[in-house]
Amino acid sequence: MSLLSLEGVHTHIGAYHILHGVDLEVPTGQVTMLLGRNGAGKTTTLRTIMGLWHASAGTLTFDGGDITRTETPDIARRGIAFVPEDMGIFGGLTVQENLRLAAIGGEFDEARLEWIFSFFPALKRFWLRPGGTRSGGQKPMVAIARAIIEPRKLLLIDEPTKGLAPAIVQNLADAFVELKARNTTILLVEQNFNFVRSLGDHVAVMDDGRVVHAGTMVELACDEALQGRLLGLHAVAAP
C-alpha cells in the first residue's frame, strides 16, 4: 500500500515547465530512492509534495487524502517533514532552538531526544551553539534531527550525504534504518549509489521531469546495464 501517490503531476515555476506528468508511488514503511541526473526534476518533486510549489495539473494523495492544493503548514501537520538540500538551518538560533521549533509545544520528548543523540552524539557538544556556525558535516545532523524530533509519517530528504565523511554517512544510514523500523516512510533524493543500494527498498528514476523507471532497489542494484542506461557510469561509480 502506498502512503504517497503522485498521478500525472505537472509543476510550473514561472515560465518554466519543470515536471511533465510525474507518476510516483511511495510504499508505506519503506525507503524509496528518487534518482536521476542534475536537473531531472527530483528537488522540484519534493518541493511540490511539500506544497512549496503547487502542481499545475495532476493529483497528490497522502495517507488517503488529497493534498494537491494543501498549503505547506497543513501538509506538515499531517505528518510530513522536509529536509532540503541546503538544510534550512536558522543560523542565528542555537542547535537546541532549531530543534525546539519543530517540537510540539516547544517541548522535547526526552526519551526521543536521547534516541536522536545515540545516532548523532556530536549534537550534544554544540547543543547551545549557533546553528549557522556548524560545519558542512554537522548541519545535516541538525536538519535531520529537527525533522525527526517528533514522529513523522513521511520524511522527504534531499541529498543528505553530499560532502559528508564516511563515518557520518554511516550514522545517517543507521538512523534511517531505525526510522524505517519505527514505521516511518522515507522518500530520499541521493547521488551516492553505494548509500542508495544499501538503504533503499524501492527506486524511481527521473529524467526530463518524468519518472522513467520504477521498481525494487534489488533489481537495479543487480543490473549494471540498467544502472548505466538510467544513471550513467559516473553515478554507478560514485563513492
Terminal residue distance: 33 Å
The largest sheet is:
6 strands, mixed
Structural class: alpha/beta
What is the CA-atom radius of gyration, in angstroms? 17 Å
Proportion of residues in helical segments: 25-40%
Determine the mean pLDDT. 91
Order of helices and strands: EEEHEEHEHHHHEHEHEEHHH
Given the C-alpha coordinates, what overall shape results?
A: globular
Question: Number of helical runs?
Answer: 11
- Largest beta sheet: strand ordering: 6-7-8-3-9-10
Strand content: 25-35%
Beta-strand segment tally? 10
Uncertain segments of ≥5 residues (pLDDT<50)?
233-239
Structural account:
Strand 1 (2-13) and strand 2 (16-27) form a beta hairpin. 35% of the residues lie in helices and 27% in strands. The chain starts with a strand and ends with a helix. The protein has helices at residues 42-49, 72-77, 95-100, 110-119, 122-125, 139-147, 166-181, 193-199, 217-221, 224-231, 233-236; strands at residues 2-13, 16-27, 31-35, 57-62, 65-66, 80-83, 154-158, 185-189, 202-207, 210-216. The strands form two sheets. The protein has a six-stranded mixed beta sheet with strand order 6-7-8-3-9-10, with helices on both faces. Mean pLDDT is 91; it is low at 233-239.
Which secondary structure elements does this structure contain, and how are they paired or packed?
Elements (H helix, E strand, L loop, with lengths): L1 E12 L2 E12 L3 E5 L6 H8 L7 E6 L2 E2 L5 H6 L2 E4 L11 H6 L9 H10 L2 H4 L13 H9 L6 E5 L7 H16 L3 E5 L3 H7 L2 E6 L2 E7 H5 L2 H8 L1 H4 L3
Parallel strand pairs: 3-8, 3-9, 6-7, 7-8
Antiparallel strand pairs: 1-2, 1-4, 4-5, 9-10
